[in-house]
């Protein structure tokens, strides 16, 4: 494949994730995007009549029981922006951050596979904890963020309150592309700040269809909306006076964030979001390799595995690894090399994955996400390539906040148990910590989200036929320490020292007060924060 073709494919691609707190409307927005891309003809499968539970990818019984999705999937669709003059559509990849109240390692890892993020905020609630955590990861990784204020059809804060909250709390300056006409709870349309025009939205029955838009000039808008239009114009002017207009360089540098007001439920503002993604979000770029060089998108094929998941299909045990393509063209059937082992990997069964429906992928380009079946040897962070050889830096481990001891309940399964623990460790399902006191029979699992422990026990049983019990430990904070500090730390109440499988020495603390006390009493001890998620 010529590099011009790859270059053209790359240019039209946008790969992003939605970062949000549970209930902000991520599923509803995903569906609204699919509706606008004409992937579905009617919305409602997700947010209507409780049928959502059947459409999410539920790969384990546990998920079904909870009615949530723990795993990431990738959704790809074509989209042609309203203003486009090209007859070639854009290709949008939406990488799903695993759903819901469980905040896990996978939620973070997805962000290593995207080029931009949409920060979805509930207009009434403002910034919420999980959004903040994920935003910090984006900032750390230099991922530009588009801000969406959702549920504008419901009472909430004013635009200026939300803008202030975001700039004050996280130092990100919102630059609204549009100002809503009508307060939260009375969403009539948007003032396009660049053209000064008014986009009025019409409701459709049950919000099932794309909301028809009526475009009016300022005079017509003033006549139609009266004070609501004047208020929007004043807000827009104020923002311009404050310098809060979109600036592409500052956006890409992570300093500003284009902002859009939406109602995912009514499909208001959704087209504007898609258009902004195409216009402003960066296409896939070159990536830095372990030796500090860059692999260009037009170079030979390479990809990074960012997520491995097992047991999707209960009828046959399989393991699916998701890779994000970094360079070159991927063709199904290609034999690639696994950089970590140097072994060949046949890609006969490559799949694009959306929910339960698996469709076969024949070729893919940088920015695309492809699922590889039977990927027993692949772990998150691994590199696959076609010569010349390349290896990308590993995905860093995340600062865990939950710690549990794991024990096997049947003594004769001990060997299997060890094998299973090593497997979970290698896959990055949990981090595995050990110390002499607990011994090998009771390793400690550390995770970002407590549901990872359930994933471990369920997989231990399904794949290794090992019954285990999980005992939550009373620790909530980990710090990196060293051999010299370990004995003193072990003498302290509410502290325990472990060695992680990568050799790092970690001290666990019951709570932050305990940690603060020890830091004060023993300033000579090494206690380094773990990177939240680099
Ligand atoms: P999540 O994936 O981020 O957790 O959120 P989800 O889309 O499931 O939405 C959470 C709730 O918020 C849902 O209501 C959904 O209908 C509602 N919602 C999402 N976007 C909007 C919006 O723009 N406006 C309004 N008014 N509501 C919105 P629910 O009652 O929990 O579920 P359901 O009965 O609608 O399925």
Give an overview in words.
With 534 residues, the protein is an alpha+beta fold. It is built from 15 helices and 31 strands. The strands form six sheets. The chain has an eight-stranded antiparallel sheet. A hairpin with a 5-residue loop joins strand 12 (287-288) and strand 13 (294-295). The two termini are 34 Å apart. The model is unreliable at 46-72 (pLDDT under 50). The structure holds guanosine-5',3'-tetraphosphate (G4P). Guanosine-5',3'-tetraphosphate binds at residues 20, 22-28, 47, 50, 52, 150-151, 153-154, 263-265.
What's this model, at a glance?
Residues 11-285 form the Tr-type G domain. The protein is of the alpha+beta class.
Helix content: 25-40%
**How many beta strands in the DSSP annotation?**
31
| Strands ordered across the widest β-sheet | 18-17-23-14-15-22-19-20
Count of DSSP helices? Answer: 15
Low-confidence stretches: 46-72
Major sheet attributes:
8 strands, antiparallel
- Look at the structure and give the mean pLDDT: 88
Span of the ends, CA to CA: 34 Å
Hey, roughly how much beta strand do the residues contain? 25-35%
How would the global form be characterised?
A: globular
In terms of quaternary structure, the protein is single chain
Secondary-structure class? alpha+beta
Radius of gyration: 24 Å
Instruction: Catalogue the ligands.
Output: guanosine-5',3'-tetraphosphate
Protein name: Peptide chain release factor 3
Domain Tr-type G: 11-285
Binding site for GTP: 96-100
Family: Belongs to the TRAFAC class translation factor GTPase superfamily. Classic translation factor GTPase family. PrfC subfamily.
